[in-house]
Amino acid sequence: MSRIIYLVSFLLLAVSSGVFAEPHADAALEATNKAVLHGKSGHVSLLVEYAQTALEQAKQGAAVAKDEAKIHMDAAVKSLDETIQHGKTGHVAIATKSAEAAVTHLQEGNK
Protein backbone atom coordinates (compact mmCIF):
# COMPACT_ATOMS: atom_id res chain seq x y z
CA MET A 1 0.00 0.00 0.00
CA SER A 2 2.77 2.45 0.88
CA ARG A 3 4.45 1.77 -2.48
CA ILE A 4 1.30 2.83 -4.26
CA ILE A 5 1.11 6.02 -2.22
CA TYR A 6 4.74 6.82 -3.02
CA LEU A 7 4.21 6.07 -6.70
CA VAL A 8 1.09 8.21 -6.93
CA SER A 9 2.79 11.04 -5.03
CA PHE A 10 5.80 10.89 -7.34
CA LEU A 11 3.62 10.91 -10.45
CA LEU A 12 1.59 13.87 -9.21
CA LEU A 13 4.77 15.80 -8.44
CA ALA A 14 6.25 14.99 -11.84
CA VAL A 15 3.11 16.05 -13.69
CA SER A 16 2.54 19.22 -11.69
CA SER A 17 6.12 20.55 -11.70
CA GLY A 18 5.69 22.09 -15.14
CA VAL A 19 2.63 23.96 -13.95
CA PHE A 20 4.59 25.87 -11.30
CA ALA A 21 6.50 27.85 -13.94
CA GLU A 22 3.37 29.50 -15.30
CA PRO A 23 2.58 31.91 -12.44
CA HIS A 24 6.18 33.09 -12.39
CA ALA A 25 6.27 33.43 -16.17
CA ASP A 26 2.99 35.36 -16.10
CA ALA A 27 4.30 37.74 -13.45
CA ALA A 28 7.58 38.15 -15.33
CA LEU A 29 5.73 38.83 -18.58
CA GLU A 30 3.52 41.45 -16.94
CA ALA A 31 6.50 43.26 -15.41
CA THR A 32 8.51 43.01 -18.64
CA ASN A 33 5.66 44.51 -20.65
CA LYS A 34 5.64 47.43 -18.22
CA ALA A 35 9.41 47.77 -18.62
CA VAL A 36 9.00 47.95 -22.41
CA LEU A 37 6.27 50.55 -22.09
CA HIS A 38 8.42 52.74 -19.85
CA GLY A 39 11.45 52.20 -22.06
CA LYS A 40 9.55 53.41 -25.10
CA SER A 41 8.55 56.48 -23.07
CA GLY A 42 12.17 57.12 -22.10
CA HIS A 43 11.65 56.41 -18.40
CA VAL A 44 14.88 54.53 -17.79
CA SER A 45 14.55 54.27 -14.00
CA LEU A 46 11.12 52.64 -14.27
CA LEU A 47 12.34 50.38 -17.07
CA VAL A 48 15.11 49.10 -14.78
CA GLU A 49 12.75 48.76 -11.81
CA TYR A 50 10.24 46.63 -13.73
CA ALA A 51 13.01 44.62 -15.39
CA GLN A 52 14.43 43.77 -11.95
CA THR A 53 11.01 42.60 -10.79
CA ALA A 54 10.61 40.56 -13.98
CA LEU A 55 14.08 39.07 -13.56
CA GLU A 56 13.26 37.77 -10.07
CA GLN A 57 10.10 36.09 -11.37
CA ALA A 58 11.78 34.75 -14.51
CA LYS A 59 14.55 33.16 -12.45
CA GLN A 60 11.96 31.42 -10.28
CA GLY A 61 10.12 30.26 -13.39
CA ALA A 62 13.33 29.02 -15.00
CA ALA A 63 14.17 27.03 -11.88
CA VAL A 64 11.12 24.81 -12.32
CA ALA A 65 10.64 24.92 -16.10
CA LYS A 66 11.48 21.95 -18.30
CA ASP A 67 12.39 21.22 -21.89
CA GLU A 68 11.67 24.02 -24.38
CA ALA A 69 10.05 26.20 -21.72
CA LYS A 70 13.33 26.04 -19.75
CA ILE A 71 15.30 27.19 -22.81
CA HIS A 72 13.01 30.19 -23.29
CA MET A 73 12.92 31.07 -19.60
CA ASP A 74 16.73 30.99 -19.45
CA ALA A 75 16.88 33.20 -22.54
CA ALA A 76 14.41 35.60 -20.92
CA VAL A 77 16.62 35.78 -17.83
CA LYS A 78 19.61 36.63 -20.03
CA SER A 79 17.63 39.31 -21.91
CA LEU A 80 16.41 40.82 -18.65
CA ASP A 81 19.97 40.92 -17.31
CA GLU A 82 20.97 42.80 -20.47
CA THR A 83 17.98 45.11 -20.07
CA ILE A 84 19.05 46.04 -16.56
CA GLN A 85 22.70 46.54 -17.50
CA HIS A 86 21.90 48.75 -20.49
CA GLY A 87 19.25 50.64 -18.52
CA LYS A 88 21.67 51.37 -15.70
CA THR A 89 24.14 52.86 -18.20
CA GLY A 90 21.42 55.01 -19.77
CA HIS A 91 21.12 53.11 -23.05
CA VAL A 92 17.32 53.22 -23.13
CA ALA A 93 16.86 52.08 -26.74
CA ILE A 94 19.09 49.03 -26.34
CA ALA A 95 17.55 48.21 -22.96
CA THR A 96 14.08 48.40 -24.48
CA LYS A 97 15.07 46.03 -27.31
CA SER A 98 16.44 43.57 -24.76
CA ALA A 99 13.18 43.80 -22.82
CA GLU A 100 11.22 43.16 -26.02
CA ALA A 101 13.34 40.05 -26.61
CA ALA A 102 12.53 38.94 -23.07
CA VAL A 103 8.81 39.38 -23.78
CA THR A 104 9.11 37.07 -26.79
CA HIS A 105 10.93 34.41 -24.77
CA LEU A 106 8.49 34.66 -21.88
CA GLN A 107 5.55 34.23 -24.25
CA GLU A 108 7.20 31.22 -25.90
CA GLY A 109 8.19 29.69 -22.59
CA ASN A 110 4.68 29.98 -21.19
CA LYS A 111 2.75 28.16 -23.92
Automatic annotation (TrEMBL):
InterPro entries, per database record: SmbP
Q: Which CDD domains match?
A: SMBP_like
Provide the protein name. Answer: Metal-binding protein SmbP
Q: Which UniProt keywords apply?
A: Signal
Q: Name one GO molecular function term.
A: metal ion binding
- This protein's source sits in the domain of life called Bacteria
The organism is: Methylomonas paludis
Task: Tell me where the signal peptide lies.
Answer: 1-21
